[in-house]
Write a structure and sequence with these properties.
The complex is a heterodimer.
Chain A (H helix, E strand, L loop, with lengths): L5 E4 L19 E3 L5 E4 L5 E5 L15 E4 L2 E15 L2 E12 L3 E8 L2 E7 L4 E2 L5 H6 L5 E4 L2 E20 L8 E8 L3 E7 L4 E8 L2 H7 L25 H24 L3 E10 L5 E7 L5 E9 L4 E10 L5 E16 L2 E7 L1 E6 L5 E14 L10 E10 L3 H29 L9
Antiparallel strand pairs in A: 2-3, 2-12, 3-4, 5-6, 6-7, 6-12, 7-8, 8-9, 9-15, 10-11, 11-12, 12-13, 13-14, 14-15, 16-24, 17-23, 18-22, 18-24, 19-20, 19-23, 20-21
Helix pairs in contact in A: 3-4
Chain B lengths: L21 E3 L6 E5 L1 H4 L20 E3 L2 E12 L4 E9 L4 E7 L2 E7 L17 E4 L2 E18 L10 E8 L5 E7 L2 E10 L4 E2 L2
Antiparallel strand pairs in B: 1-2, 3-4, 3-13, 4-5, 4-9, 5-6, 6-7, 7-12, 8-9, 9-10, 10-11, 11-12
Classes of the chains: A alpha+beta, B mainly beta.
Chain lengths: 434, 201
């Protein structure tokens, strides 16, 4: 006859409370949630030690809670309260030990309302170990590489256990201290963790907060509020920011190059520089234009004394004697000295570009009806006027303006990224920032 | 079976206790187990109790980007826990051992005798070993018993047989494992694999 069997409970050998056994084969210690006794899970739950005067840390998660994180189902099997003191400051956080039969054991950390997943990292890490002492002696910020990610030193922390409940894969002791050297990468954090009896390397991920809380059934007001930014929290930057920066820089360079090319395209002189004395004005000049596909350019340079100005008037007529445009320009030259030192304002040259509508002989009517010294309008002050004209000219201003615009865009995006990065690193304890 | 109650609070454990061996009471959270003939015989038979697993026999899987098909599964007990050794073939028919122990995954291939360490005398923790030009330090020396077998293997494994094994780690993270048999040590070299990198193709 088949033995019907007998139901036996797993109970705390100290207080008799029923224990919930959830963890896998590596659980060695079970801390009774009722009396705080640490029980040897490998030796009939023999009492190893007792946690006394423990203050339960604030967490909406409990032993036995189940949730899906990083695509796997996990169950909370242990809860640790931890704290770090430095001078008068105290930081506290809660580590939840999660267990999955297929993926083993991971930590779900709740720190300032942020959820972080940390697990042992067995892949190759270079260097294989960084101790707190090495950090102290380092002249440059220590770095490490693993899994294609580069990590830079962030902080060293010394944590003490203040609370323990549930199952653990090692034996936690009250006030056990763990020294962790953390390095921050673009996506994750790498930690060299040194406890009383072992060393291991861990890697941490920032989790999609709302999804994880919902997965564990924590909703509404039960979800802890976040305080401050976590260095692992994703920075809200466009995903293709690097591309945008690169593209803006490339466009700025191309436009700059184009501006140089346009500058180099001087065209052909159609009116050699001619110097007119003031007494020769008004006057009429003619020149022939053959190239109607590109801009033509008139250049005027006034012969002006210091702090004088002149107003010139220009009328250009096309080969059919139809006025193409009329324009007026002020030429001036000012110089002086003030509290900031010497200054000059040189506007003795002006350029007028136009698009020739047809080839043939163009006529330029030129006059300088007004002028003066300083603010006064006391008559022409122009000593002479040099006039020249070219065809096939180009203007470098549009590509130059675009080059500046793209350069400003690239610079602004870089500044945005650097500011966001600086926010991530503001909690770092590395003082000589490089 | 449905009339079984929680020994701690007296609440009914429900019909599931008839099909499972261990259950947590929905009322007080106490874990209870059914101590029957099968429970007492646990470990004496070669029954492979199926739980959630990263790999399944004859089902191809991508392990760190490489495709393997497990053809044999051996379960070993090291006292407080168990782990599985899968004999798996890649698409070219080359075989590897994939060890899985609660999220710890190692893929190793047998080392030819010419590249294998030749330890003189008994091995000790911390002892240095050389394999394929790399230095390893012994990090674990244990014994394990084969408690279940299924599928096919490239060597003879015997149910209930106890093996002595050693693990040695290189600074690069590579793992060298040795298994002591009647003809001396057999050596296997490989790498840890992130369990999140084991998935269906």
């Amino acid at each position: 006859m088949r033995d019907p069997g007998q139901i036996r409970a797993i109970q705390c050998t100290q207080c008799g409370a029923g224990l919930d056994v959830l963890g896998g084969g590596r659980v060695t210690t079970h801390v009774c949630p009722y009396c705080g006794s640490a029980l040897d899970a490998l030796d009939n739950y023999r009492v190893l030690t007792r946690f006394t005067e423990m203050t339960r840390p604030a967490t909406p998660l409990s032993i036995g809670d189940r949730g899906r994180v990083m695509g796997q189902d996990w169950q909370v099997i242990g809860i640790l309260g931890l704290s770090e003191r430095w001078q008068t400051q105290v930081w506290t956080w809660v580590d939840h030990l999660l267990y999955s039969p297929t993926h083993g054991y991971v930590w779900l950390t709740l720190e300032d309302g942020h959820l972080i997943l940390t697990r042992r990292w067995r892949k190759a890490v270079s260097p294989g170990w960084i101790s707190a002492a090495q950090v102290e002696q380092a002249n440059a910020r220590p770095g490490a590489d693993s899994d294609g990610e580069h990590f830079r030193y962030f902080e060293t922390s010394t944590a003490s256990i203040t609370f323990a409940e549930g199952e653990f894969t090692w034996r936690p002791r009250q006030d056990d201290r763990t020294i962790t050297v953390s390095l921050l990468g673009d996506r994750t954090m790498l930690s060299y963790v040194e406890g009383a009896h072992e060393r291991e390397i861990e890697r941490s991920w920032y989790l999609p907060q709302a999804d994880v809380w919902a997965a564990f059934g924590v909703t509404g007001a039960a979800v802890p509020r976040t305080e401050g930014a976590h260095p692992l929290a994703p920075v809200r930057l466009p995903r293709d920011l690097s591309f945008l920066i690169g593209a803006s820089a490339v466009f700025a360079a191309l436009c700059g190059l184009l501006a140089l090319v346009f500058l180099a395209m001087n065209g052909r002189t159609v009116l050699a520089q001619t110097t007119l004395r003031a007494s020769q004005l008004p006057t009429e000049m003619a020149f022939d234009i053959a190239d109607t596909s590109r801009l033509a350019e008139l250049r005027f340079e006034g012969d002006l004394g210091t702090n004088t100005w002149a107003w010139i008037e220009v009328t250009l007529s096309d080969p059919e004697d139809v006025p193409l445009f009329e324009a007026g320009r002020e030429l001036g030259y000012y110089a002086g000295r003030d509290s900031d030192g010497a200054w000059t304002e040189d506007d003795r040259v002006t350029v007028i570009r136009f698009h020739p509508t047809q080839s043939g002989r163009y006529t330029l009517d030129l006059d300088a009806p007004e002028g003066g010294a300083g603010e006064a309008q006391d008559g022409p002050r122009l000593g002479g006027l040099r006039v020249s004209a070219r065809e096939g000219a180009s203007s470098a201003r549009p590509p130059l303006a675009l080059a500046v615009l793209f350069a400003l865009l690239a610079g602004g995006l870089v500044l945005w990224r650097r500011t966001a990065e600086a926010r991530r690193w503001q909690g770092s304890d590395w003082e000589d920032d490089d | 079976m449905s009339d079984l109650n929680c020994p701690t609070c007296g609440a009914a454990l429900g019909p599931r206790i008839g099909t499972v061996k261990m259950i947590s009471c929905a009322h007080c959270g106490t874990t209870s187990y059914l101590e029957d003939d099968q429970f007492r015989a646990a470990g004496q038979s070669g029954v492979m109790h199926d739980g959630p697993q990263l790999l399944a026999l004859d089902r191809p899987a991508l392990v760190a980007g490489l495709r393997y098909t497990p053809r044999g599964q051996a379960r070993f007990s090291y006292g407080r826990g168990e782990w599985d050794e899968f004999w798996a073939l890649d698409d070219a028919g080359a075989g590897v051992w994939i060890a899985i122990d609660e999220g710890d995954v190692v893929v190793q291939a047998a080392l030819p005798a010419g590249n294998a360490p030749r330890p003189k005398g008994p091995l000790a923790l911390g002892q240095g070993l050389q394999a394929r030009g790399e230095s390893f330090a012994v990090s674990e020396i244990e014994t394990a018993t084969c408690i279940a077998l299924r599928g096919v293997f490239p060597e003879v494994l015997r149910l209930g047989e106890t093996y002595r094994f050693v693990n040695a780690t290189a600074p690069s993270g590579r793992l060298l494992s040795g298994e002591e048999g009647p003809d001396g040590w057999e050596w296997f070299l490989g790498d840890w694999v992130d369990p999140f990198e084991v998935r269906a193709p």
